[in-house]
Predict the 3D structure of the following.
Amino acid sequence: MTTHLKGQKMFLAGQWVNSERVIEVRDPQDNSIIGTVPAATAEDMLECIEQAKQGAKIAAAMPVHQRMKVIYAAADYIEQNSEKYARTIASESSKTIRESRKEVGRAIQTLRISAEEARRIHGETIPFDQSPGSENRVGYFYRFPIGIIGAITPFNDPLNLVAHKIGPAIASGNAIIVKPATVTPLSALLLAEAFAEAGLPSKVLSVITGHGREIGDALVTHPAVRMITFTGGLEAGEEIMRKAGLKKIGMELGSNSPVIVLPDADLDDAVDSSVSGAFWAAGQNCLGVQRIYIQQSVFHLFMEKFIEQAAGYLVGDKQSELTDMGPLITEKEAVRVENLVNEAIEKGASLLTGGERTGAFYAPTVLTDVPEDCTLATEEIFGPVVLLYSVTDLDEAIELSNGVEYGLQAGIFTKDIDQAHKAIAKMDVGGIMINDSSDYRIDAMPFGGVKQSGLGREGIKFSIQEMTEPKVVCFKLSGQ
């Protein structure tokens, strides 16, 4: 079953709008056209920002109970139409139908957490009399919305990562403009549909489809847009930083996540978790397992088990309930991954399984003996490729794990609490999962990395902190 949404309109300040030019949305599985969306212009984006100025005032004036009601209603709408949402994700993205259903469930949870966090945007009293001469002053601070938020979202989680921008923005009383990935805009538009059905006031939310080179600069550089929240690649993130000017920036820029396996680990659990973490969504996952450091005494046993599972993955039709992994987002991306693997093999890496491409499909691939000067060893692969390394001890594993310019999340498998705490203290990452792969995440936790993996933190409560500012109120009292 394939979902077709021909002639989908974009959501400009609460209105469904067409455009003379369109973008074809294709299923990466067979490159068939599953729909079209408007190709917005820079003028469309500027009009959207003008509307959002009013939307920011409307959003800020919404009482908390109204924000909560709207967000809950949007979550309910998605839940009532969950299969439609899942089929859309599975049609336009790389995810299988089983993976897509899980993403829909997470998006519903993301919105419901956002509604709950709306009631917890707290301030504090301030003891002004701590300063001599201020004995007659009392006050507090509270948090207020920053105004207009510009969100640029990726293709790999086309519903939930958009929900992670929209949910906290509305919960905190902001207007938001979303520019979804050009290749996966339909899921974001369905999320806008949910908020429209939920009764969100006009002008608070826009989802504008188009090419980044045409509408991105207008969004990023406009002084009325007070924050840019971006999930994507490092190069694009650096370009946004150069252009954005004086405004808040939140960025999640990916990683090449490490996992460490020590001899006392439950190897079956470590293999199961790491295989899933490596090949979920065809490896197009910022948390995806890319490098696994296994202590020598269990290296060969782990490798055998890992290869057996990876080689047994069923790759094929995304809409089939039996499929484990679908294609990459485009054939161009599959060719890129193929070239990176071939480069590593030419430089001496050993191919243990996989390494085969058919169109946009690339088989789950496992390499070992990968030289340090290979791109695969230091950069984000963003494909179904994992590297296995034998190490002498935890210290070597930590040193190698930290020896790259990324630091989003890591995993370690061990029953030794002392070894676990050593890794916690010494690994340069934003999150470390004990007896889980780097791929584990819940939507309520602070999420983000260090070094080139990004700036700031997502996770609803933490996004709301980024999307609000504290305002101090001080009363000077007389007659006391």
